[in-house]
Amino acid sequence: MLVIGIAGGTGCGKTTVVNQLLKELPEGEVGILSQDSYYKDTSHLSFDERVKINFDHPRSIDFDLIEEHLTELKKGNAIDQPVYSFVKHNRTGDTIHTLPRKVMIVEGILVLSNPELRKMFDIKIFVHADSDERLIRRLRRDITERGRDLDEVLNRYKTTLKPMHSQFIEPMKEYADIIIPNNHYNTVAIDIVKTIINDKL
Ligand SMILES: Nc1ncnc2c1ncn2[C@@H]1O[C@H](COP(=O)(O)OP(=O)(O)O)[C@@H](O)[C@H]1O
Ligand SMILES: O=c1ccn([C@@H]2O[C@H](COP(=O)(O)O)[C@@H](O)[C@H]2O)c(=O)[nH]1
């Protein structure tokens, strides 16, 4: 199994890059683990308490469960990936049955920040977009898809997203094998990564 870690700040285009790769690679050969599925269970907290969580700090992620699931997949066993609701800020209780594939992509803002998980990646990719571009994308997406309003996104950006990005995400570029510039749609970079994956299939 080839394991690829894809990190980068919120709104840089990780999900878009992964979807482009999925579209162009042979069906059934590539599987995805999304870091978003592994936000810690917050059922013991009220909604008002959950809103106050710093979701951009590594402690908000259940890295042990990601590693456990990736280890099982590497052994050839299927896993049940939790489904997360950004509207409720909690796991929904549903799961996605995820089968082992020749290529497994692990995608999320902080997937390169955890040393043990990082060691499990054969290829490490960092998707870069400038912070103003990412903020614009995040505003659009969170308002249309995640039920947020302008003030909420801007306030979260200032208090947590920006400082956490500088502390835990941007420095991870140092570990990347490939950095994809993604201020604009980058079909050349997608083609290069696709070729590398196809070579290993
Ligand atoms: N290169 C790009 N140019 C313009 N918009 C983009 C680009 N890549 C992604 N987007 C848009 O930005 C938003 C965030 O992209 P997404 O892939 O969800 O980012 P991430 O998973 O890194 O948070 C989405 O609405 C997506 O359509
Ligand atoms: O309950 C939650 C959990 C996370 N977030 C925000 O999501 C982004 C990470 O997702 P991307 O798709 O990579 O943007 C992170 O910056 C968290 O702030 C949330 O809003 N609510």
UniProtKB/TrEMBL annotation:
The keyword ATP-binding applies. Pathway: Pyrimidine metabolism; UMP biosynthesis via salvage pathway; UMP from uridine: step 1/1; Pyrimidine metabolism; CTP biosynthesis via salvage pathway; CTP from cytidine: step 1/3. Keywords: ATP-binding, Cytoplasm, Kinase, Nucleotide-binding, Transferase. It is found in: Cytoplasm. It catalyses: uridine + ATP = UMP + ADP + H(+); cytidine + ATP = CMP + ADP + H(+). It comes from the Bacteria. GO terms for cellular component: cytoplasm. Its main location: cytoplasm. Pfam families: PRK. Residues 3-188 form the Phosphoribulokinase/uridine kinase domain. Its EC number is 2.7.1.48. GO terms for molecular function: ATP binding; uridine kinase activity. It is an enzyme of class 2 (transferase). NCBIfam families: PRK05480.1 (NF004018), udk (TIGR00235). Belongs to the uridine kinase family. This is Uridine kinase. It comes from Neotamlana sargassicola.
